[in-house]
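[recover] target loaded
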């Protein structure tokens, strides 16, 4: 793997996707290769069988290596699951020498301070994302580097995760022969991939509805304000069809994609679909509307859960840009219309943006996380590129050292 080549692994409940990219023109991402395979050993976004999960990751990495012609030594890995919690916290630092402008060491110090929160010993701070800085009471400073002041505050969004969930995931990736460069919260990655800057500024919710989870990220004033993961997703829709139509899971899964619609009144009332069902009479003819009604009920429930999570922290009035749906379930026909009805906000389906190269496979809401992981990793390093002209490998080195600090905390050897 060359120094300017980097990889991401999205370990979803239904698929593992490894993507290899390099930095293209104007810091955009050029995709070199993708490896997707069905996920085994995961439940609701978390590892539930180490051996199976490791094998799925290894298969996906192997495919991505063949597709990109590179060897993947390390990767940025997505983490999700209902163990994720978040809060906003402020860090404060005094600037000792008034004659000197604020330097990167002061910024690092204040960010370190914001990370110090009281959490149980079985949890770890996954992210401390700076939202804005305050220099001597001057609010909403986006970059305090070079400014003069005596006191620097930073408002951060802190994400914490269960230490054991992190360790299990890292163990699987490392057993698959890949070093974990960083763990990144999946809904944050999805937000990175599908959102426009203007949406983030005006207030927006990203709901990545995958197979076993729904990842939520709320953005206000240009930065992330709240993140959360709900243990519901498209698999629940399929299971409802299994129960409602009495058919095997694979049949329900196919029928959902082929005939599913979140608004039953938008399908022809007379249309019948033939399904292989349980029982003596294998082939059953089912009204398509009936199938859609089952889906509609669960979709409404998921969107209501998303909204109640959002309303816990932010008033929906200030989220002018509404909701952007991502994840494989966002491909269900009519889900955007139903989401508009339930939330009373504008809704659109988000697909990954700003990609170059082999990006056809990733041009799909289900790959928002995979692409976003790459973009998040690049953004973290981009801040370093700006200050140092010595190129990506230097920047990655500096960043890796920081990641290494908490990895050592987690894996004492
Ligand atoms: N055309 C479609 N219509 C409806 N649902 C679909 C369609 N295509 C895929 N899905 C559903 O999308 C879900 C998979 O989405 P995705 O790939 O985003 O999940 P994942 O990342 O593996 O899981 P998670 O993020 O929850 O861990 C499955 O439940 C699948 O049935
Ligand atoms: Mg996912």
């Amino acid at each position: 793997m060359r120094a300017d080549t980097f990889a991401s692994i999205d370990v979803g409940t239904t698929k593992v996707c490894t993507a290899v990219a390099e930095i293209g023109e104007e810091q955009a991402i050029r995709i070199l290769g993708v490896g997707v395979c069905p996920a085994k050993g995961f439940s609701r976004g978390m590892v539930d069988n180490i051996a199976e999960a490791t094998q799925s990751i290894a298969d996906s990495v192997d495919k991505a290596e063949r597709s990109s012609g590179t060897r993947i030594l390390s990767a940025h890995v997505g983490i999700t699951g209902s163990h994720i919690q978040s809060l906003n916290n402020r860090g404060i630092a005094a600037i000792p020498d008034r004659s000197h402008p604020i330097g990167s060491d002061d910024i690092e110090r204040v960010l370190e301070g914001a990370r110090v929160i009281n959490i149980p010993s079985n949890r770890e701070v996954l992210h401390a994302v700076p939202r804005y800085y305050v220099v001597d009471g001057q609010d909403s400073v986006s970059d305090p580097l070079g400014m003069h002041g005596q006191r620097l505050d930073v408002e951060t969004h802190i994400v914490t995760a269960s230490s054991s969930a992190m360790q299990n995931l890292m163990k699987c990736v490392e057993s698959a022969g890949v070093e974990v460069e960083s763990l990144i919260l999946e809904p944050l990655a999805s937000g990175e991939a599908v959102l426009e800057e203007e949406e983030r500024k005006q207030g927006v919710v990203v709901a990545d509805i995958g197979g076993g989870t729904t990842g939520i990220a709320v953005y206000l004033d240009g930065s992330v304000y709240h993140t959360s993961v709900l243990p519901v997703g498209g698999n629940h829709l399929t299971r409802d069809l299994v129960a409602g139509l009495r058919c095997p899971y694979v049949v329900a899964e196919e029928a959902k994609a082929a005939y599913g619609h979140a608004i039953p009144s938008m399908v022809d009332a007379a249309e019948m679909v033939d399904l292989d069902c349980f029982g003596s009479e294998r082939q059953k003819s089912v009204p398509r509307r009936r199938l859609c009604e089952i889906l509609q009920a669960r979709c409404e429930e998921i969107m209501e859960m998303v909204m109640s999570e959002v309303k816990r922290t932010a008033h929906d009035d200030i989220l002018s840009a509404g909701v952007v749906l991502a994840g494989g379930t966002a491909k269900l026909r009519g889900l955007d219309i139903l989401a508009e009805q339930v939330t009373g906000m504008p809704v659109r389906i988000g697909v990954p943006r700003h990609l170059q190269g082999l990006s056809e496979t990733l041009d799909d809401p289900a790959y928002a996380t995979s692409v976003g992981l790459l973009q998040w990793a690049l953004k973290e390093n981009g801040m370093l590129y700006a200050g140092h002209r010595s190129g990506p490998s230097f920047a990655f080195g500096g960043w890796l050292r920081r990641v290494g600090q908490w990895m050592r905390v987690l894996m004492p050897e």
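[recover] notes: The radius of gyration is 22 Å.
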